[in-house]
Amino acid sequence: MTDAQGKGDKSARSQMLGAVRRALGRGPLDATAAAPLERRLADHPANLIPARTDRPAPAVLDLFVQMAEAVSTTVDRVADERAVPAAVSEYLARYNLPSDIVMSPDPVLDVFPWHERPLLSIHRGRSQGDDPVSLTPAFAGIAETGTLMLESGADRPTTLNFLPDTHIVVLFADQVVGPYEVAWNRLRAQQAAAGGGMPRTVNFVTGPSRTGDIEQKIQLGAHGPRRLHIVLVEGRSPAAGKESEGGIGPAADGPRP
Q: Which listed residue, of 51, 89, 194, 242, carries a Cα 20 to 30 Å from 155's Cα?
């Protein structure tokens, strides 16, 4: 971003906020009125958390799978990283899907032995819109609703989440949390440890794309992938844990809200 662009963005922001203040009939808040709002932004107080998420870790994992499958996500549970390429290959064969995959360039995916499945045609990068299958990692799985939390970045292009017809996500069991609040805590902790702000985009994906706009009948693939498949990896080797440092793991949760 150039200096001129930065000044333009700030000017536009000031104009927008100024219009809101004029509509409210007031100017900028004084320090006394602003203080509780600043505390609210800094403290991240939890909202109401469903009781169904308050259970031991193995039961949280089962709840995530149950909730994901209830919204038409398919899930394969595998023992460790070595089983991931086979699970991906077998899923594609099961549904007679192409073996051409555009894969996220995220190094988290480098720990899997893709060379053991030479019939998989894999290239790394963004989706160009005509890729049949994408494969990405996820930041977290949220058992509350069977939802995937996907962060954007140079090595996690958002196009992979929405353009291909089939989206395959590799998720480690220790990335699955109960409520949304714990997932946000992990992301904030990761970004703080990295010394940066929040990602430009955080997407929450619950099942494949669907709509009921046409004659009130559910149609899959309306605005994104028609198939969402999760390969859930129950175990994690030290190498995989090292690749994923920075918030994806139980130690990054902090206290439960």
A: 89
The 3-class SS string of 160-226 reads HHHCCCEEEEEEEHHHEECCHHHHHHHHHHHHHHCCCCCCCCEEEECCCCEECCCCCCCEECCCCCC
100-119 confidence digits (pLDDT tens): 999 999 999 999 999 999 99
DSSP 223-236: SS-SEEEEEEE---
**How far is Cα 220 from Cα 205, in angstroms, rounded to an integer?**
14
Whether residue 200 contacts residue 152, with contact meaning beta carbons closer than 8 Å, is answered with yes
CA distance 177 to 141: 6
Assign a CATH topology to domain 57-248. Rossmann fold (3.40.50)
List 166's β-bridge partners, or say none.
133, 227
3 vs 28, more confident: 28
Q: What is the mean pLDDT of the chain?
A: 87
Sheet holding 202-205, edge to edge: 176-177, 140-142, 147-151, 202-205
Rounded to whole angstroms, the Cα distance separating 127 from 162 reads 9
pLDDT in the model for residue 174: 96
Q: How far is CA 81 from the centre of its chain?
A: 20
Segment 167-180 mean pLDDT: 97
Query: Is residue 247's pLDDT more than 80?
Result: no
Sign of CA dihedral 195, 200, 202, 207: negative
Report strand pairing: 147-151 vs 133-137: unpaired
Over residues 33-71, the pLDDT tens digits come to: 889 989 888 888 888 899 999 999 999 999 999 999 999
Q: E strand or H helix at 76, and its extent?
A: strand 74-78
Question: How many other CB atoms are there within 10 angstroms of residue 8's CB atom?
Answer: 12
